[in-house]
Specification:
This protein is an all-alpha fold and 368 residues long. The protein is built from 13 helices and two strands. It has helices at residues 12-29, 51-75, 82-104, 118-135, 138-158, 175-183, 201-218, 224-246, 258-281, 289-296, 298-312, 322-332, 337-361; strands spanning 316-317, 320-321. Helix 1 (12-29) runs parallel beside helix 11 (298-312), helix 2 crosses helix 9 and helix 11 crosses helix 13. 43% of the residues are buried. Mean pLDDT is 93; it is low at 2-8.
Length: 368
């Protein structure tokens, strides 16, 4: 399996992890039927953790790792950082703008526009983490991350929600939701609260920081086996710490709680450590091609999925959309509707793989 860049400096494990994460994101975003989905392929309604809840933080973790790998050689270069800062800002703005474009689909109603979302959060985390990486060392990044997680925990568990008179961690009634209600423009995803709101963006940046710390380890002078072992050990420790913190501050993706950051970053570290050992150390590349291909144009694949959905999920044909026809047909044939819904989601992922494959074969790598 060739590296997308054609160089040996890239980590195939990271490329594959990025691509399979995007494929998983597309799968859970576009089930065949929203009414028939296996529980773990849904986001938790509030506290808890499902497979779906892991996907976004794993991708932000990968963003952090990629920052460390991409900018480590540029930190010590002579000359002004102004050009580098400019490129970072432009890239962040482009990702954010594409997120706004997707939010406007299909009707482009500016009066009902949401200013937050997955790509918006990726853009913000990339911007902040890239600037942090260029201006701080790994110890300062770690201290900052810990400080943010502790302050966020204290804010949500000690500051009463105005109008409620007490500390509440329920949907739409916590201090994070109140801040969004006061200051977040546009439509909120859940009416009076948004999972990608203002306050929860701070701990999501820490998810990116944990990725940068992992990236720093990957470019260190430790041996490959030591890097893999340290990643997996750190991941296990982080996940365990997050679990125990979660007893006091529940694991919650909607609030992106501090315990959620530690648990998900721990999982991401263990996954990267395992993939690095298998793929980059042992050279076991069988079966990783789809992940590497998706990962080479990850955000492009994510955007194309939203565009393809206009046809495969919204266009009515004979009174039903294509996904409704497909799920109904499989259910009538005797399949569990949830299985039919998941199979259609896999079909949709495979459909999006086609343009990703074409771009990869033509060595076209679109960087927003």
């Amino acid at each position: 399996m060739d590296n997308p860049s054609g160089t040996s400096s890239r980590l195939l494990s990271l490329d594959a992890m990025r691509g399979f994460t995007i494929a998983a994101m597309i799968m859970v975003n576009f089930p065949g039927s929203e009414e028939h989905v296996f529980p773990t392929l849904h986001h938790t309604k509030w506290n808890g953790l499902t497979f779906t809840d892991l996907i976004a933080p794993v991708f932000l973790y990968i963003v952090g790792v990629s920052i460390a790998l991409a900018y480590s050689k540029k930190v010590g270069l002579p000359g002004s950082k102004a050009d580098l800062y400019k490129k970072i800002v432009i890239r962040s703005v482009k990702i954010f703008a594409v997120g706004m474009f997707l939010n406007m689909l299909p009707n482009f109603h500016f009066s009902d526009l949401r200013y937050t979302g997955t790509l918006h959060r990726i853009a913000i985390v990339f911007l902040v983490c890239a600037f942090l990486f260029l201006n701080t060392n790994w110890k300062q990044q770690a201290y900052l991350g810990i400080t943010i997680l502790v302050l966020y925990w204290l804010a949500l568990t000690l500051i009463p929600t105005p109008g409620e008179g007490q500390v509440i961690l329920e949907p739409g009634r916590n201090i994070a939701a109140w801040i969004d209600q006061q200051f977040l423009p546009g439509k909120m995803w859940q009416g009076n609260w948004d999972p990608e709101g203002i306050l929860s963006t701070f701990p999501s940046i820490v998810t990116g920081i944990t990725g940068m710390l992992a990236g720093k380890l990957m470019i260190s002078k430790f041996s490959p086996n030591e890097k893999s072992n340290y990643l997996m050990a750190a991941g296990l420790f982080s996940a365990a710490a997050g679990y125990f913190w979660g007893l006091a501050f529940p694991v919650n993706e909607n609030l992106w709680t501090s315990s959620f950051v530690l648990v998900t970053s721990g999982f991401a570290s263990m996954l990267l450590g395992a993939l690095y050992f298998l793929i980059d150390i042992l050279g076991k590349t069988k079966g990783i091609a789809p992940g590497v291909i998706f990962g080479a144009n990850a955000i492009t694949a994510y955007v194309l999925a939203d565009i393809f959905a206009l046809v495969f999920y919204l266009l009515p044909i004979g009174g039903q959309t294509i996904n409704q026809h497909a799920v109904a047909s499989m259910s009538e044939a005797g399949l569990d509707p949830r299985l039919a819904s998941m199979l259609y989601a896999w079909f949709f992922v495979a459909l999006n793989f086609i343009p990703a494959y074409v771009l990869y074969k033509r060595k076209i790598f679109i960087k927003l």
